[in-house]
Amino acid sequence: MRCLWGGLLVLGCALSGGCTTAIVLLHVQSKVNEGGPAPCVKLNTVELAFSPRCGDYKPGSLQPQDVARSGLAECPLTLAVRDPEFWPLLPELLDRGARTDMCQSSPWVALAQRSGETCPPFTQASAPIVKALIRLGEDDPRALHHDTMRALSCPQAQQAGLDSVLHHWRTQGRLAPRQLAFSPFSALHPRYLDSLFSRKLEATGHDPRLAFQGRDEGQLAPGFEAALRTSDWGALAWWFERLPELTQGVPATRGKVVGWLPLARVVSPGFMPIEQQGPMIEFLMARGASPWQRLPHAPGQSVVQYAQQLNNPWTSTLNPPLLPERAQAAR
């Protein structure tokens, strides 16, 4: 609104008072706008493309010199990849010379961490956008990251064909066993564990146990925890088939001093919806999880006592009448 009034004032005075008056009033207008967004007419082509207030992005409008020196606070590729609203800019940015080595961090990592455990809307992307995302994943060495693998293996990524980046990394030898700062099995989306890609990783020497040895896991939850939180029965069966001892406890990772119990995590407030807790408790107990096991961080308290303290509605499932022998043995 200030720009509009200022512009009308300058125009009116220029028509009536001449150039000198207009110049003075332009200076006044710049002072009025000081601290606000720059006028659209002062933005270069890249800045305009990332400024919806100035109108929609027009394909073919980006100038190579603006791509090289955008004037933006962040790398244009990072901005374009991280926000699906700006995905249409990706093909042209790459064609005009944008490079990931001009970015402080990997654009793919930025997208994965912004999305969290929500799969980005890859199936809504056009073929040129998907091609650009694949190119960025394959060409940027920093894209090989725990969180990026989660995004590249989520259901929509599979449907769009973006998981081809994972296969590219593997065939190029970039996923060699014990050479990464994270476990691929912990990084993959839970629904991707039962896949040809996962089976090839296991066949070439990747050990699921390495997912619990305190390695760097990125910002997103480790794969087993993500499977537990989302009640992904298939992924949990995959983990328990290889590491049945996980029902009795998960080792400490990410610099933590003590591990955790899946049963206790399930009844913890906010970990998963209340209605999903009961089936998960039964699932874990059927595989050997003990509700009388002591909490690693509070040895004086069992899972049952913890649930009672929380007034958890599934306490009776943890402590049915037919378990006195198990309770006595655990004590």
Description:
The protein is an all-alpha fold. The chain has helices at 2-32, 45-49, 64-68, 76-82, 90-95, 107-115, 127-139, 146-152, 155-160, 164-171, 184-187, 196-203, 223-229, 233-242, 262-267, 274-286, 303-309, 315-318, 324-330, and strands at residues 294-295, 298-302. A two-stranded antiparallel sheet has the order 1-2. A hairpin with a 2-residue loop joins β1 and β2. The chain starts with a helix and ends with a helix. The model is unreliable at 1-11 and 13-33 (pLDDT under 50).
| Number of DSSP-assigned strands | 2
Unreliable residue stretches: 1-11, 13-33
The first-to-last residue Cα distance is 72 Å
Q: Give the strand order of the largest sheet, numbering strands 1, 2, ... along the chain.
A: 1-2
Kindly estimate the percentage of residues that lie in beta strands according to DSSP. under 5%
Look at the helices and sheets and give the structural class: mainly alpha
One letter per element, helices H and strands E, the order comes to: HHHHHHHHHHHHHHHHEEHHH
Level of helix content?
Answer: 40-55%
Largest sheet: 2 strands, antiparallel
SS field, number of helical segments: 19
Give the overall pLDDT as a whole number: 87
